[in-house]
């Protein structure tokens, strides 16, 4: 056997000792404490599953980043890329007969292929919850509240949920030719008002749609934004989305509302989310530390037609925000 | 996207919900509570590492059962097959400058390739500890005590540690031709007295060695066995091994001693362990639920020449022994 010094770990791996471990465990314990008190039961899906579990529900972006290998039976498997897909598979198989609504939670690693040298993690700790079988606004609020509570329990001082509803944007892109819709999506994502005005004109969007598109980048703010958005709603679906957000806003406490910013121009979850969608931002972290929303179409892909709403938080990012004294 | 019902999980996977999760978490919490109070710090090595991490220290049996794949950089990686190897790599790299002794603990999954259809798990939860940098009998006792304490904390009613020392057996096989030594190893493992007598005669073993070999299958029992073994010790190494076990026996409390059975004929860890070795048995489980011992030669293979003693327990087996009410 060689006795030369051994290599370190593969790029993007997490090799954790001391405070790095303690801080992650503290985040997980705070999470499970809260989730259990809310009636959420932990599930632990396998570390690797048949690849199709992750390609069915996830967009092509995630599918390209699976860490895959061939299993002994010759079938392609992938390391867990996403808890929500694994849980959808669970609900479509083992938990098919479970009583609804079903409240499930988790905390563990997900694995993503990343280009070498980019310094990005290929194993990430995440935590989250799924509320399955309840399509109502109360369920949306329950999940938003749980996300807010865990951030408060961790004493993260300055955080915000950017909340939108995909039902407001989707009608704006309906009926457009695919290339035009793609260009608009980019403009919406960049909050580029000029490009939106150009796009709406070029594509011959109806006046009401054009007006809403141009205003989208400005539809960010507290509850009053919902009134402005309501006046711009271009279809019954868009109206319904705004009414839903207003109902949610009405159910939040004043303290919770302080952490919610409405952002009707958030488009990243198009094709995945069917109702509310949100991203979680924390002061000092230059990217979202969490994301969630309603995906009433997802579970049907796994043989279980159920409404569902949930979220995931990046445990690593939260752990790094904890003071060492807390670890 | 297909909407047919999705397949289940790959063979040997653990897809855990409800009580199966709760029982495993209860075992892990009890473990970390105890380990932390004993000064053991948790480490979380990566889920997959360069294959050589696991092939260096492990015997060929484990090396053949690695779940391997080719990483993006073209190098072979393997899912963690064994925490001890990963920790040895850690101590040889990131923790190379750490103050000794080093007390490390862990709880998580290991992954093993198993033939399909055998129904054996390919992902197992384990927990354990390593005490690194202390070669003394007190360190052996500390680790034995920790194993006993976690089983007691879980209120496992009937358990036993079968404790031996590889230093007693190794001299009996020294200087024999390899084929002969192999046959003897099988006979020792089967506690086959007749085959041991035959083998000793055929191989022309010295009288003292032959006597010890034939008695090996009977060298099982409480402390008095150590006196019999002492009279059969065929070399200074064997004498030292028995003196070490006697010192350990003297340091155990009467309550701890109730759970210890000396078994000088235990040979499975030959080639890995260098001092004490033990297996943990629980009433109602037809195989060892844990194993441990001293491996002073292992860390040197990873560039860190340190004595070390540790153990691992099969979390799944312990979890299944907990009453549902405890979960």
Quaternary organization: homodimer
- Broad shape of chain A: globular
Mean of all residue-level pLDDT scores of chain A: 92
Strands side by side in the biggest sheet of chain A: 1-5-6-12-11-10-7-9-8
**SSE order of chain A in H/E notation?**
HEEHHEEHEEHEHHHHEHHHEEEEH
| Major beta sheet summary of chain A | 9 strands, mixed
Number of domains of chain A: 2
> Can you identify the CATH superfamily of the largest domain in chain A?
Bira Bifunctional Protein, Domain 2
Head-to-tail CA distance between termini of chain A: 39 Å
- Over all CA atoms, what is the radius of gyration of chain A? 21 Å
- The share of residues in helices of chain A is 40-55%
Per DSSP E runs of 2 or more residues, the count of β-strands of chain A stands at 12
Major interchain interface with per-chain residue totals: A-B, 60 and 60 residues
Report strand % of chain A: 15-25%
Topology:
Two copies of one chain form a homodimer.
Chain A lengths: L17 H20 L3 E2 L5 E3 L1 H6 L2 H4 L4 E3 L5 E4 L3 H10 L9 E10 L11 E10 L4 H17 L5 E7 H8 L4 H12 L3 H10 L4 H9 L4 E2 L2 H9 L3 H16 L2 H4 L2 E4 L12 E7 L7 E5 L13 E7 H7 L6
Parallel strand pairs in A: 1-5, 7-9
Antiparallel strand pairs in A: 2-4, 3-4, 5-6, 6-12, 7-10, 8-9, 10-11, 11-12
Helix pairs in contact in A: 1-5, 1-13, 5-11, 6-11, 7-8, 8-9, 10-11
Structure description:
- The structure is a homodimer of 327-residue chains.
- The first copy, chain A, is of the alpha+beta class.
- The first copy, chain A, has helices spanning 18-37, 52-57, 60-63, 83-92, 137-153, 166-173, 178-189, 193-202, 207-215, 224-232, 236-251, 254-257, 315-321; strands spanning 41-42, 48-50, 68-70, 76-79, 102-111, 123-132, 159-165, 220-221, 260-263, 276-282, 290-294, 308-314.
- Chain A has 2 domains: 15-158 and 284-327, Bira Bifunctional Protein, Domain 2 (BirA Bifunctional Protein, domain 2); 164-282, 2-Layer Sandwich (BirA Bifunctional Protein, domain 2).
- Chain A is built from 13 helices and 12 strands.
- In chain A, the strands form 2 sheets. Chain A has a 9-stranded mixed sheet, sandwiched between helices. In chain A, strands 2-4-3 form a 3-stranded antiparallel sheet.
- In chain A, helix 5 crosses helix 11 (236-251) and helix 6 runs antiparallel to helix 11.
- The two termini of chain A are 39 Å apart.
- Chains A and B meet through helix 1, strand 1, strand 2, helix 2 and strand 3 of A and helix 1, strand 1, strand 2, helix 2 and strand 3 of B.
């Amino acid at each position: 056997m060689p006795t030369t010094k051994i290599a370190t770990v593969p790029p993007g791996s997490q090799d954790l000792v001391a405070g790095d471990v303690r801080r992650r465990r503290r985040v997980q314990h705070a999470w499970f404490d809260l989730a259990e008190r809310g009636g959420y039961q932990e599930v632990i899906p396998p570390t690797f599953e048949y690849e199709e579990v992750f390609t069915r529900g996830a967009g092509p972006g995630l599918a390209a980043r699976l860490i895959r290998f061939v299993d002994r039976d010759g079938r392609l498997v992938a390391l867990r890329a996403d808890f929500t897909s694994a849980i959808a598979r669970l609900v479509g198989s083992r938990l098919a007969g479970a009583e609804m609504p079903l409240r499930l939670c988790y905390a563990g690693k997900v694995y993503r292929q990343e280009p070498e040298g980019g310094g990005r993690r290929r194993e990430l700790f995440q935590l989250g919850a799924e509320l399955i079988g309840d399509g109502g606004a109360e369920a949306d609020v329950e999940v938003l509240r749980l996300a807010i509570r865990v951030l408060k329990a961790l004493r993260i001082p300055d955080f915000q949920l950017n909340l939108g509803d995909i039902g407001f944007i989707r009608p704006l892109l309906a009926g457009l030719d695919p290339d035009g819709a793609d260009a608009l999506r980019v403009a919406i994502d960049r909050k580029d008002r000029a490009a939106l005005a150009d796009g709406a004109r070029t594509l011959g969007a109806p006046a009401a749609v054009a007006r809403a598109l141009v205003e989208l980048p400005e539809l960010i703010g507290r509850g009053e934004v919902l009134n402005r958005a309501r006046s711009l709603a271009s279809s019954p679906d868009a109206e319904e989305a705004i009414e839903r957000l207003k109902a949610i806003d009405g159910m939040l406490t004043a303290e919770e509302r302080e952490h919610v910013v409405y952002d009707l121009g958030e488009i990243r979850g198009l094709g995945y989310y069917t109702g509310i969608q949100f991203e979680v931002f924390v002061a000092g972290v230059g990217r979202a530390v969490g994301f969630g929303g309603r995906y009433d179409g997802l579970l049907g892909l796994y043989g279980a037609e159920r409404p569902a709403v949930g979220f995931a938080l990046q445990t690593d990012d939260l752990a790094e925000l904890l003071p060492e004294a807390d670890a």
